[in-house]
Write a structure and sequence with these properties.
single chain, 157 residues, alpha+beta, Chemotaxis protein chec, two-stranded antiparallel ribbon, 3 helices, 32% strand, globular
């Protein structure tokens, strides 16, 4: 996996979260994951096609999703992941991905995206069907919790 593909997603995630949460965002230590992995409870998945194939997953706990959705909706308090909260997390994935893809286009890469798919549940797993290592980038959000950016991309063969 080329670092040129990863950095725009990491930078975009940091920038968008910092802007929408108006708070401190810290990038944790990166790590690689080769196999299937459990999601933390709420995950927005965006598929990538074009010069590469793969996916980007924005993974968080339900509590973090509720807090982030509330912050993005002018301090509204969400007790459940209702349609508005789900839509907000999906829009967060759109905002991050759009910023990252713009940077990648500027570098000469061409990508197509799928709309974000939202997965919610306990003990759910995302299979790594690409047979490529996924790079996990944790983003610590202070009082909001943590979002992990899970990127699995490979050049189209």
């Amino acid at each position: 996996m080329r670092v040129e593909y990863i950095n725009p997603f990491v930078e975009a995630t940091y920038n968008v979260l910092k802007e929408v949460l108006q708070g401190e965002v810290k990038r944790g230590d990166l790590y690689l994951k080769e196999s299937t992995m459990k999601i933390m409870g709420v995950a927005a998945l965006v598929g990538l096609a074009g010069d590469v194939e793969g996916r980007v997953l924005f993974d968080m706990t339900k509590d973090t999703a509720l807090k982030v959705a509330g912050a993005m909706n002018f301090g509204e308090v969400f007790k459940t992941l209702d349609d508005m909260a789900k839509s907000t997390i999906t829009e967060l994935a759109n905002m991050i991905t759009a910023q990252a893809i713009t940077k990648l286009y500027d570098l000469g890469f061409k990508f197509d995206l799928t709309p974000p798919a939202l997965f919610i549940g306990d003990n759910m797993e995302i299979a790594n069907t690409l047979k490529v290592e996924a790079l996990i980038v944790p983003m610590e959000l202070g009082q909001y919790g943590k979002v992990e950016v899970n990127v699995a991309i490979r050049e189209r063969v």
